[in-house]
């Protein structure tokens, strides 16, 4: 029985993408994008116009499930539909990596069942009439690999290998098939339209990916590289390179939309240019109204430093120089607490009253006067009726490569509308009710539509209870020893 928490790092940092690095990518756009036309004749006309001008900018809605609680699912996923006839796949939504991949037929060490209450499906290119292999001489492959592959012969597949920050990895080959997307066509309404997309067909997994506890069909990378689904859609003029998520930390699931987000209004901070991830500049950390006195180089940017926004990471990782004083400051208010460690990773304590009354809020300050407030009930997670653990982690402990980056995952991103405006190279957020709606604009017709929340799958899963029981047992055992 695998009792590790499904926690941490999720798909976090993309360290290496051998055959799919961010080279000079050029996309061949062979198929025209066609919607299942149920549009009014006017909007049909406008979209025809837009098509003639090479742009057909609409809004797309993704259905979300999962939650950010480390003792439950510990990740957010989306349902996507691929192939002809279409089949559903459940993929982790990860703004920290750059390709979509799903487990494929013939895979060695792929999970066959999941404890997340979803049915896993292996993709088989032979069973989809629209599916095709991507060979190493095709543009997608040569451009992701910065030029022709040295040993490429006709009919050889275009291979990829992705290693994630938590030590897990996936490899396989690229295929191209119809991906069916929910185009927003009215208030809380959408219609399916398909588009040929290149994605990874995973045939070898290692690390966390082959365990069933939080198993999914794959990962949907929402990174900036040209290989991402977002970039492929944007390159062919289907969407603007703008998307937003609202991860519901209270109920699970949430809102995910691609396109012009009109409401809520979001204040932004610039993205650090030329970074493989969504890096922003942090300026200060405030705990309960006091700004922490930190060495100034803590907020430097670059490959060894910096602050990354990553929906594929469950918790939040801070450099030791930030983590230590932050935790000390938080605990200053509760000197009588007896701390103990769970799973060699989590700092926990018993507490019966409201944590929001007892602990201070943490506020991160970013360039452009953007702030991000994290409430105690968000940075603490409950493992039993009377026990809580800190979600804050020291990145020094986590990274084997000595990098001291700040990694802001679901722990701090949930209960906010987080906007990634790649057209303007900015990212922003605002506190928001993730079970309400946001307003998007169909840029082709100018129409404004409300997009609502989803919560697919069951969040009270078997594994959640199993982990919880284990934690409980473990925690009380430890506690008894103290
Ligand atoms: C991505 O594609 C765009 C437009 O097709 C191109 O201008 C850009 O150089 C590409 N970027 C990378 C990193 O390959
Ligand atoms: C994909 O879209 C085309 C054009 O609208 C349509 O003819 C086809 O049936 C769609 N494929 C599926 C599997 O829905
Ligand atoms: C698909 O068909 C090809 C050719 O018949 C075969 O070589 C390949 O193994 C099949 N792939 C899968 C996943 O079944
Ligand atoms: C959030 O929105 C939902 C749906 O509109 C509503 O039922 C709920 O009361 C709202 N929650 C809060 C805290 O305002």
From TrEMBL:
Keyword Hydrolase included in the entry's annotation: yes
Cited Pfam families: TAXi_C (PF14541), TAXi_N (PF14543)
Top-level taxon: Eukaryota
Keywords carried by this UniProt record: Aspartyl protease, Glycoprotein, Hydrolase, Protease, Signal
Active site positions, chain numbering: 94, 310
GO biological process, one term: proteolysis
Protein name: Peptidase A1 domain-containing protein
Organism: Trapa incisa
């Amino acid at each position: 029985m695998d009792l590790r928490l499904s926690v941490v790092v999720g798909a976090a940092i993309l360290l290496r993408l051998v055959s799919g690095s961010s080279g000079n990518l050029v996309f061949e756009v062979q198929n025209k994008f066609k919607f299942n036309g149920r549009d009014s004749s006017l909007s049909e006309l406008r979209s025809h116009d837009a098509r003639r001008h090479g742009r057909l900018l609409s809004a797309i809605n993704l259905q979300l499930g999962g939650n950010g609680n480390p003792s439950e699912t510990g990740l957010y996923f989306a349902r996507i539909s691929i192939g002809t006839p279409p089949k559903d796949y459940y993929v982790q939504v990860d703004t920290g990596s750059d390709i979509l991949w799903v487990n494929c037929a013939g895979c060695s060490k792929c999970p066959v069942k999941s404890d997340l209450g979803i049915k896993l499906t292996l993709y088989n290119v032979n069973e989809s009439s629209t599916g095709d292999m991507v060979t190493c001489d095709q543009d997608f492959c040569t451009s992701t690999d910065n030029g022709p592959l040295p040993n490429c012969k006709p009919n050889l597949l275009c291979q990829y290998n992705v290693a994630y920050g938590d030590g897990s990895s996936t490899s396989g080959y690229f295929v191209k098939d119809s991906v069916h997307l929910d185009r927003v066509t009215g208030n809380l309404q959408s219609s399916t339209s398909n588009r040929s997309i290149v994605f990874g067909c995973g045939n070898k997994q290692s690390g966390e990916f082959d365990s069933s506890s939080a198993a999914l069909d794959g990962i949907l990378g929402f990174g900036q590289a040209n290989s991402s689904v977002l970039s492929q859609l944007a390159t062919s003029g289907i969407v603007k390179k703008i998307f937003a998520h609202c991860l519901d930390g209270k109920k699970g699931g949430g809102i995910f939309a691609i396109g012009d987000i009109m409401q809520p209004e979001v204040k932004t901070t610039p993205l650090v240019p030329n970074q493989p991830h969504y890096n922003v500049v942090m300026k200060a950390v405030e705990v309960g109204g006091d700004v922490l006195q930190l060495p100034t180089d803590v907020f430097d940017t670059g490959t060894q430093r910096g602050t990354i926004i990553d929906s594929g990471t469950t918790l939040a990782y801070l450099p030791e120089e930030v983590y230590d004083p932050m935790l000390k400051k938080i605990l200053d208010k509760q000197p009588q607490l007896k701390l103990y460690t769970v799973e060699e990773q989590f700092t926990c304590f018993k507490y019966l009253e409201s944590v929001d009354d007892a602990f201070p809020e943490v506020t991160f300050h970013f360039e452009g006067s953007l702030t991000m407030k994290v409430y105690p009930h968000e940075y603490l997670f409950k493992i039993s009726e009377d026990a809580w653990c800190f979600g804050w982690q020291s990145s020094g402990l986590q990274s084997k490569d000595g990098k001291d980056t700040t990694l802001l995952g679901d722990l701090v991103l949930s209960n906010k509308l987080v906007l990634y405006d790649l057209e303007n190279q900015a990212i922003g957020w605002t506190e928001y009710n993730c079970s309400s709606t946001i307003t998007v604009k169909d840029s082709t017709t100018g129409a404004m539509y409300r997009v609502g929340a989803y919560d697919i799958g069951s969040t009270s899963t078997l594994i959640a209870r199993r982990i919880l029981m284990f934690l409980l047992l473990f925690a009380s055992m430890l506690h008894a020893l103290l």
